[in-house]
């Protein structure tokens, strides 16, 4: 829909199809309905929905083919979120466009970014800053509320982050404190914070949004995490063993643990899945890449997002069918 596959049509594809005109991409990132590619020369090209100007500042509702984001010539990372996109420059500056910003704008409060994570950014110092809504404590500043922040603000208590990730209304980091520790904050309405059924402090959250934590909380015990991927109301961690553990919402089998509970509040390792080197999450489906070069996906498959030629959702990993 809305040209988010970049092949010049609005049609769904149930197996992978090439994006038109992009042959030198070194990184890709998909948001809710827009996708962007970082090219070898440092340019960023995007396509798909543009209702919030998350592709480019042009007043066009969607782009079925990739278009150049003007003014970005030294990008080293790109990250597409629900309705906004950010790029990290080689000198650590961050430019964002789309929701909360409109046209591409450089954020002066961020000058030493090391990693983009949706509405959050990890700094070289190990601190994390976030922007955007805060109804369920997504900013991690110790209090929630209806007021959003257009500027990046510092997350409380995170000083040595190695990896950061952002879901729809929650975020997580891996901290290098002794053994690596995983912390999450924001919405916990489906157990996506992963700390079991612990009570949380979410001051100023509305009654309908009170399942949340406005400050980072430690995730229940799991092996040593090395990477993170967050979905709509889900979280997954790649472990040093090459295994993957997931938690949170499971309505479409997106935890990959087979048929089970509607949601899971603590990490559960996916059986039979090993030698994983990369993990990624969409809104309600997840994918991994193994050391052997295989790609496996699971979860919601209504629009063919698992890439296996079908539209049936799966609760366990299945191989993607490449041409």
Please summarize what this structure is.
The protein is mainly β and 323 residues long.
What are the salient characteristics of this protein?
323 residues; mainly beta; Methylamine Dehydrogenase, Chain H; four-stranded antiparallel β-sheet; 24 strands
Please explain how this structure is put together.
With 323 residues, the protein is mainly beta. It folds into three domains: 1-106, Regulator of chromosome condensation 1/beta-lactamase-inhibitor protein II (Methylamine Dehydrogenase, Chain H, 7 Propeller), CATH 2.130.10.30; 120-220, no CATH class; 229-323, no CATH class. Helices cover 0% and strands 44% of the residues. It has strands spanning 25-30, 34-39, 44-49, 62-68, 75-80, 84-89, 94-98, 102-106, 113-117, 120-123, 128-132, 149-154, 161-166, 170-175, 181-187, 212-218, 225-230, 234-239, 244-249, 263-269, 276-281, 285-290, 295-299, 314-319. Strands 1-2-3-4 form a four-stranded antiparallel β-sheet, with no helix packed on it. A four-stranded antiparallel β-sheet has the order 5-6-7-8, with no helix packed on it. It has a four-stranded antiparallel β-sheet with strand order 9-10-11-12, with no helix packed on it. Strand 18 (234-239) and strand 19 form a beta hairpin. The model has no long low-confidence stretch (mean pLDDT 94).
């Amino acid at each position: 829909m809305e040209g988010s596959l970049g092949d010049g049509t609005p049609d769904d594809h149930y197996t992978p199809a090439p994006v038109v005109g992009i042959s030198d991409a070194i990184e890709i990132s998909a948001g809710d309905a827009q996708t962007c590619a970082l090219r070898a020369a440092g340019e960023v090209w995007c396509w798909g929905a543009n209702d919030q100007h998350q592709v480019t500042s042009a007043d066009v509702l969607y782009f079925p083919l990739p278009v150049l984001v003007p003014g970005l010539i030294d990008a080293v990372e790109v990250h597409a979120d629900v309705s906004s996109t950010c790029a990290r420059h080689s000198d650590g500056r961050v430019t964002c466009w789309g929701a909360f910003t409109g046209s591409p704008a450089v954020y002066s409060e961020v000058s030493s970014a090391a990693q983009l994570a949706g509405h959050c950014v990890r700094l070289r110092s190990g601190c994390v800053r976030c922007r955007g809504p805060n109804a369920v404590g997504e900013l991690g500043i110790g209090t929630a509320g209806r007021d959003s922040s257009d500027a990046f603000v510092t997350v409380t208590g995170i000083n040595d982050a190695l990896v950061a990730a952002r879901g729809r209304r929650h975020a997580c980091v891996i901290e290098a404190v002794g053994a690596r520790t995983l912390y999450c904050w924001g919405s916990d309405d489906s157990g996506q914070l992963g700390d079991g059924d612990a009570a949380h402090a979410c001051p100023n959250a509305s009654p309908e949004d009170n399942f949340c934590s406005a400050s980072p909380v430690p995730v229940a015990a799991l092996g040593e995490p090395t990477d993170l991927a967050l979905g709509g109301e889900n979280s997954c961690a790649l472990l040093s063993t090459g295994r993957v553990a997931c938690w949170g919402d499971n309505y479409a089998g997106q935890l990959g643990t087979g048929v089970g509970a509607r949601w899971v509040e603590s990490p559960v390792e996916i059986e039979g899945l090993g030698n994983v080197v990369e993990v990624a999450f969409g809104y309600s489906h997840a994918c991994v890449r193994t050391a052997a070069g295989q790609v496996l996906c699971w979860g919601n498959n209504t629009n063919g997002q698992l890439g296996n030629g079908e539209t049936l959702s799966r609760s366990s990993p299945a191989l993607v069918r490449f041409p």
